[in-house]
Amino acid sequence: METVDVDRTDAAYRAWLKEAVRKVQADANRSADTHLLRFPLPEAWGIDLYLKDESTHPTGSLKHRLARSLFLYGLCNGWIRPGKPVIEASSGSTAVSEAYFAALVGVPFIAVMAKSTSQAKIDLIEFHGGSCHLVDDPCEVYEVSMRLAAETGGHYMDQFTYAERATDWRGNNNIAESIFAQLRREPHPEPAWIVATAGTGGTSATIARYVHYQQFDTRICVADPENSVFFDGWLRHDPQATSERGSRIEGIGRQRMEPSFVPGAIDRMMKVPDAASIAAMRVLENVLGKKAGASSGTGLWSALKIVAQMRAAGEHGSVVTLICDPGDRYLDKYYSDEWLAAQGLDIAPCRAELEAFLADGSWPAR
Rounded mean pLDDT of the chain? Predict the structure, then answer.
């Protein structure tokens, strides 16, 4: 039988691929690590709270890490090709970061997003050279993204499937490795809890896997907003859980259990009312002088509740949560009292709870 030998090597493509990978890796090499900020708590409590400030990435959010990993994954798998568009289903921040990397390697980018996405995010995607395809129902983003990829011959990046596998959770400067390195000289270098929020679920999966791999005792809590199914799906062990309404907290919460959400890796989940997320976001600004998005407020509310529970139990240690993106993307939304009124959201009671806790250590029982 004659040997069959098929060689698909294209010299021009291989040269383009090498240069594209170099550019993405060079971007990481140019970027300093993000800061780990200390949230002030009374020293007598013996508990330290830190916020990993992912808003300092070049594209302004936690999703910069994910987009870099997804582009390297897509490039090295041969999925991203010269001249062909990358398409992504996104609630905004991932698309901003992917538009940046698409421009870096020289391919078109199309973001498929709900019409409710903040205008500031749409403007940033277009600033980085991407285009936006807006849909009425957030549940449509998956199907529309696949259709556009088929029609254009492009690549559907599919962050909701590949987020948990594109990142090397064993190390290689992932967010978990960075957190533990920055805590090394702190009073409690191995945190009792790390609190994450979930959009794809990739961040919580990366942190949880790293903790287990390194044999740390740190526990992982995922804070979930209203109208998201992650909490219910995790509680009922139901991978098919769905929700009829989408999350009001941009960047986190989903209407289906996403493939990148790994429920078995995490220890605890906490359902957070939207009013509490926005109240915590505004308290964060008062305490640190820094505007952050409402997803950061979701994590901060849960982290402070855990601090309160540790204090009540007489426990000492540290807790870490994340600043996911900057608040200037939401000035006409979460920072707008008119928007809150239109949504029927009263954040005053939740804000009062937080301020009372920070003042005297008491967390009202609900």
Answer: 94
